[in-house]
Amino acid sequence: MSDIFREVDEDLRRDRMERLFKRYGGIMLAGALVIVAGTGGYTAWRSWQQSQHQQETAALAAALSQTGQGPEKGVEALAAFAGKADPGMAALAQLNAAALLTREGKTAEAVEVYDKLAANGAVNGVYRDLASLLSVMHQLGSGDPAQLQARLQPLTAESSPWRFSAREMSGVLAARAGDKDKARTLFQQLADDSQAPAGVRSRAADLATLYGKS
Questions:
Q1: pLDDT averaged over the chain?
Q2: CA-CA distance, 65 to 188, in Å (whole number)?
Q3: What is the largest CA-CA distance in the chain?
Q4: Distance CA 20, CA 182 (A)
Q5: Residue 191, C-beta contacts closer than 8 angstroms, at least 6 positions apart
């Protein structure tokens, strides 16, 4: 008797599956095709992305090679590349262009490039922070100390990869503002920080001693 019930149950399940497939089979097949196409599409997209990255790297290298024909030619080529590259590659081009401008004594123009990059929300935060740091660095002797200190403050945090340079500049700005006690404290903290680069610690120790004198 149990065999009869099992056969009936199997017939009912088979009949139910057939009716379900007739009703929803097209949708399920379409869904399966979308999954397969999506997987293939993702693979193709990754391949295209890698190809694009290689092309942009080659284009950036070509733009950098233009510096051999003179700084102005190099800046022009890097600016043209940055105008059509993705944000990350464009940031590298802009940093190089600003460095060329600085080398030519065009500090104000370089600062404009750094500030524009620092304000670009589409760029990775590490590049934006580096641009801010470099902008401040090129204004240490001419910019308003309080404003520059405000820009450096976020970069002095423990989580910042640029914290040691930012703290060193903060000490310089404190000294410029006439606050020798703050400058000495900042430099001494850097000199005592075992994680700071050796060059930074050495300079900080000398400056802490200098500003420790009455």
A1: 79
A2: 43
A3: 108
A4: 78
A5: 201, 204, 205, 208
Question: Nearest-CA neighbor of 143 among 119, 120, 163, 114?
Answer: 114
Note whether 109 and 101 are within 8 A (CB): yes
Q: Is the dihedral of CA 57, 60, 66, 70 positive or negative?
A: negative
The pLDDT tens digits of the residues spanning 126-169 come to 999 999 999 999 999 999 999 999 999 999 999 999 999 999 99
> How far is residue 14's CA from residue 57's CA, in Å, rounded to a whole number?
59
Q: Classify the phi-psi angles of 70: left when phi > 0, otherwise alpha if psi is within -120 to 50, otherwise beta.
A: left
Produce one character per residue of 156-170: b if its CB has 16 or more CB atoms within 10 Å, e if not: beeebebbbbbbbbb
Residue (of 152, 55, 139) closest to 98 by Cα position: 139
Q: Which residue has the tokens 């802009």?
A: 94
- Would you list the domain boundaries of the chain? 148-214
Q: Which residue has the tokens 């945090």?
A: 157
Specify the pTM: 0.72
Q: Which two tokens stand for residue 212?
A: 């420790």
Phi/psi zone of residue 105: left (φ > 0), alpha (ψ -120 to 50 degrees), beta? left
Higher pLDDT, 148 or 86: 148
- Angle among Cα 63, 86, 44 to the nearest 5 degrees reads 110
Asked if 101 contacts 75 with a C-beta cutoff of 8 angstroms, the reply is yes
